[in-house]
Amino acid sequence: MRLPDTSLGRRADLRPVENGGYFAGYGGGVLAEFHSKLSDLFIPERQGCRVDVVDVVPATGVDADDKAQVNEYAISSMEELVSVLNQSSPSGSSRTFLVHRVNSWSRMNVTYDMFHAICASIRTAPEFVKLVMGLGRKLGSSDEDFMACYSRFSMPDTTSQTYDQACDICYNIRYYERHGRELEDPWSCRQSAIHQTYPFSSKQSSWLVIQSPTAFTLDVRDAQARTTTAAAHPMSPHIQYLAAGNAGWRGYLNYIADRLKSLDEEVAVCKRYGEFGVDFSSKQSINLLRRKLRHAAAILASTLETLGTLRSHEATMARTLDLRVSLHEGFQRELQNLSSELRNYLQTARKLLSLSDDITSIYGDILNLHSQELIQTNGMALTHLTQANSLETKAIGSLADCARQESRTMRIATLVAVYYLPANLVLSFFSTTLVWFETVGADGPGQGLSVLRVHREIWIAVVVTVVLGAFTVAISSWWERREVKGEEIASPKRTLLRAC
């Protein structure tokens, strides 16, 4: 196991380019993006820090019953990490760093300086930073489809004579596990990343695993899960890691299948379309399941590509190390078994997608029939309303004719009254006591001249008439202004009531 630099014991700067840290050799593009996400990737303080280290030293005997020695360390500070890193390990040993997270959208429970020391110790590949950047704190579903696998074989550095020939491989997987919360969907899609460095001379495997599957964590800590002799395949933990990630696929797809089955049973029995309890929310449920199935199919396809890269990496490694044929073929068979499972899960996901298409089509037909029936019902209701409106229109027309006839009659009566009003006014004036006829110069009966006489107080009648007319006009003007003012006050109130 390679020892870290002594400078790693000091708190690392959050600007690795400037202080010449291990990440400085990764290139400006990747490093700049990595630097911008440091606050979302690592916790700022040691409080809450949790890194588990598992050292596995294989048995040196030839007895098949001899078990490997497993040493575990729970690290929560930089000092403890440096102490563990400075411990020497024999050839053929394996050291695994387990970095945890609270949930799938939270930061890693490790500080940046500790992560920097771990990466410098095991010589992580620059591509591993790309995988790490998708594991930080998130406020949305970003990078949910990014999966990759990187393989590298490095040659000895003849100038410094510091590092020998080694190979490394890193990748991330997405897997499903039960979250244990009381939600409608009991499954969560989680992400994990793994990195292995294997120097050919010391044969000391170094592993860095971030948010590992639960089953893999148990396997790492179980001494019985490790091969007892030093002749074990150096890449065998990949099989355990991938198998732990694949453990939830069967249950998750069964859950999706049960949900689709319950939706299919709603329309599987032949009956009148009006008896189906189908609405738009049912179609939304199918769309949600289809989105989950498409995401699962993409993950399965990417995982199969990762297995292909692992297969090629192991073949090159077997040739370089001249591994026994039994170890090489055994590892390839295990990968083939995992690939067979994943292809079956992928086929199942595609089958469920096809089934969801059929269910969606039937639901769409039922909703269309409901829509057509609703359109027909609304059309009939509109027809009845139109007929009723027509009858009301006829009645209003009859009333309008009657009103028009009455208005004509009233107009004629008004005209007649206007024609006779002057005569009536004149005759009424002459019929009063203010005006009378007096006979003048009569010597005998039937003789003399009739003279029209006007009472001298007739001005009183004229004045009273003028005053009464003026008073009437004043009262009418006041009443009209009052009505207009009342309408102006009531209009804003009606507008306010409409707005409320």
From TrEMBL:
TM segment ranges: 412-437, 457-479
Keyword terms: Coiled coil, Membrane, Transmembrane, Transmembrane helix
Coiled coil region boundaries: 328-355
Ranges of residues in domain CorA-like transporter: 36-232
Tagged with keyword Coiled coil: yes
Gene3D superfamilies: Magnesium transport protein CorA, transmembrane region
Pfam family, one: CorA-like
Protein name: CorA-like transporter domain-containing protein
Classification of source organism: Eukaryota, Fungi, Dikarya, Ascomycota, Pezizomycotina
